[in-house]
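pls design
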């Protein structure tokens, strides 16, 4: 299951992503927001991040105007590696090298077509499992324990 959340600035892109993924049989858990009324993005970032960190959802997608705030907020949750991606190369690399478990996108930065491609690449790329990447992720995780 994929957790998804957005703020008011990204509601339309969230709807597009949900429609695309559901049409492909991907199960989605939508953590909001659901209207264009102004909301605080950290609330939705935390909901998605906690769902992924707990194992309730396998991966997550967060969207705000730029994706920056969502990625910062999500990365405050232990066990989350949220990557802000604006291209498919970065989406592929962050899965292969960083085992990122949440994708952040900016609706005001990335067009719908590219955003859908980025989501596809992120969700369909596996972690390489190479020793050097495992070691580096371990270093990141241990820094969070201090």
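designed seq:
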């Amino acid at each position: 299951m994929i957790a998804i959340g957005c703020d008011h600035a990204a509601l339309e892109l969230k709807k597009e992503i949900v429609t695309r993924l559901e049409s492909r049989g991907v199960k989605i858990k939508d953590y909001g927001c659901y209207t264009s009324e102004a909301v605080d993005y950290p609330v939705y970032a935390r909901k998605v991040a906690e769902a992924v960190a707990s194992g309730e959802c396998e991966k997550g997608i967060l969207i705000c105007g730029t994706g920056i705030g969502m990625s910062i907020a999500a990365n405050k949750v232990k066990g989350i590696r949220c990557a802000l991606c604006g291209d498919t190369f970065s989406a592929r690399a962050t899965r292969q090298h960083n085992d990122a478990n949440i994708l952040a996108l900016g609706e005001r930065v990335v067009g719908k077509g590219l955003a859908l491609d980025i989501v596809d690449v992120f969700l369909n790329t596996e972690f390489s499992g190479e020793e050097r990447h495992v070691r580096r992720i371990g270093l990141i995780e241990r820094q969070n324990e201090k």
